[in-house]
Prior knowledge:
Number of strands of chain A: 11
Distance between the termini of chain B: 24 Å
Structural class of chain A: alpha+beta
Shape of chain A: globular
Radius of gyration of chain A: 22 Å
Distance between the termini of chain A: 47 Å
Number of helices of chain B: 14
Helix content of chain A: 40-55%
CATH topology of chain B: MetI-like fold
Order of helices and strands of chain B: HHHHHHHHHHHHHH
Radius of gyration of chain B: 24 Å
Number of domains of chain B: 1
CATH superfamily of the largest domain in chain A: Periplasmic binding protein-like II
Largest sheet of chain B: none
CATH topology of the largest domain in chain A: D-Maltodextrin-Binding Protein, domain 2
Number of domains of chain A: 2
CATH architecture of the largest domain in chain A: 3-Layer(aba) Sandwich
CATH architecture of chain B: Orthogonal Bundle
Largest sheet of chain A: 4 strands, mixed
Number of helices of chain A: 20
CATH class of chain B: Mainly Alpha
Strand content of chain A: 5-15%
Helix content of chain B: over 70%
Oligomer: heterodimer
Amino acid sequence: MAIAFEGKHPDVDVQYTMIPMTNGEYQTKLKAALGTADAPDVIALEAAFVKSYVESDMLADLGSLLPDAQAAQTYKFVTDVGTYDGMTKAFAYQATPGAVFYRRSLAKEYFGTDDPAEIQALMADLDKFTAAAAVVKEKSGGNTYMVASSGDFQNPFFANRAQPWVVDGKLVVDPMVEKYIETAKLFRDQGYEAQAQQWQEGWFAGMNDSLVDANGNAKQVFAYFLPTWGLPYVLAPNAKSADGAHDTSGDWGVITGPLPYQWGGTWLGIVKDSPNMDLAKEFIRFSTLDQENLTNWATGVYTNDYLKAIDPNVAPDQQQAPGDFVSSQVVVEKITSSFDNSDLSKFLAGQNSYAGFASAAPSVNAKLMQGSDDAIQRALNDPINQYLNGEISLEEMWTAWKDAVRNEFPDLVIE
Amino acid sequence: MQTLAKFRRNYYGFLFILPFVLAFLIFGLYPVYNTIALSFTNTTLMSSKAEFIGLKNFERLFADDVFLKAVGNTWLLWLLNFAPQIGIAMLLSVWFTNARLNIKGVGVWRALFFLPNLLMPAAVASLFFSLFSFFGPVNQFMVQNNFLPEAMHFLQNKTITRGLVVFIQWWMWFGNTVIILMAGMTSIPVALYEAAMVDGATATQMFRHITLPLLKPILVYIFVTSMVGGMQMFDIPYLLTDGRGAPSSSILTNNMLMYLKFSSSQGHIGAASSVGVMIFLMTSICSLAIFYFLRDKDSAQTRK
């Protein structure tokens, strides 16, 4: 992106610094640099912490770019995340609506069809989703789990609350959260989930059918809740098991699922009082709102050769492969059909995932996102696990969670 | 007048220790002072204004039982790790320095016991995490050999998780203790043991009346450094589970609580500093207690 910008503006030199996020180094370095003379002009902010920066007074107002956003028909939820108190401070080039990926062969076995439209009808809302889970368990004799873990469907529940976590400095527990815990308990008690926590060995094993329980019996997972980037970065690479014995490529389909949600994404903002304000604003406009750039980004025009033509010092493996779901509805509608025969659609037995996401994107709501979300939600994981394991009661779970939140946010009012 | 003359004679000595004193003042004492100062404010990393709020941070620490739980956990994890550590290390040191037993290859054994200390905590935590995961090898072994009826979430069980942390800490540090104890024991003159043997002392009596008293300075060193390290236990419990002391804050230690406050989305340095101050106070008082109880009573009297 930076190099393409340099291509359009040959007299500008963009300095790009990459800091890994593995153990929070990125945020530590960023927090230390902001407010000093060494601060960068433009910063990239991941969904997990974008809100806390947007809510702070550290980013500049980008309201002047709103007309461009309107022209590009940037998805509402993308702009909502970058807006606080009426001021828009961050834009994104990506949109990351969530979806559900299901195994076609298993769908044929248990539901008699693998057509996405029919499967979507079968899982159109939460009650239907739970009913489908019961069918999966019954027809497979308990050998197939609807989802890998209850953590998989945490995002959809939280994205469809009526109230955010913090209202007027008070912690609020929306009914959807209680519904989530109820559903998680139901799934655990009935055996609809494999207890394979996300991002751990078992979760990945389920993707390529190499999941084996403690007794050595093979188990399968029917569906995974993953967003746009989940397909090329998580599901596709893990569909083949390490020893090559199992391969589920071509056996997947994608649907919107019971509830719309979004997961992840990267926003760009400008540090307040940056000395290069106009140039920085132009960079953000180019990266996130310029239709030509977004089209090139998403359709894979930025190959290594293209980038080398602008800047010969480009690394040999630097390129942007096609498939990233961009934030402009105008661009998305124009390029959706170009993905009909891509590698990713072969992975989905010919289904165009871009079209699937395009239909899901407009109904995603990110108005409730707040800076403290990540910490509050992560503090819930351990108490929920203890509750699901039957080690503590529901009351104790809420108390444990509230204690953890109180310790991380001393100024929050919790009752 | 006499002290001035002594100073003029000895000023080279002061010159030599000056670099250490300066470095200590800048890198040791100043951060302590700064932490204490910060603990009385509500400074955060995310906003540029900070105000003096007195003892509010400390009040909040004791408002619920999370801090006390962390302190309790830290002491429990350290004591459970230290007792076998000093016990087994002492036993091994006695055997290895015993002239009668004359064990061969003592150097090799020492190196082997010390090796775990060189491992990266991240690698060790990751290893144990994979071993004890729900779909991992330990579960498979236990279930297939009928030790367990079905797989269990080892790392969601408080006792087992604490046990794992204690085991890892013991395994990583007992070699270090063996080396230091052996160094101390070999410096005890053999003549004392020979005299005791002539007087008809048993091995236990020799240990209690010769080895232990003469090892006191080394023991003080081991107790104090182990306690300071134990009070600051962070890497293994942080990396073994979710970084918040799961399950149910059973392995939440002082330093983890401090880090959680510091790295939260607000970056509450004031609150984190207050935890730091409490750790500092606790460690100082306990170290002074160790120094007092293990002091050399005889030499103190002869100086009088």
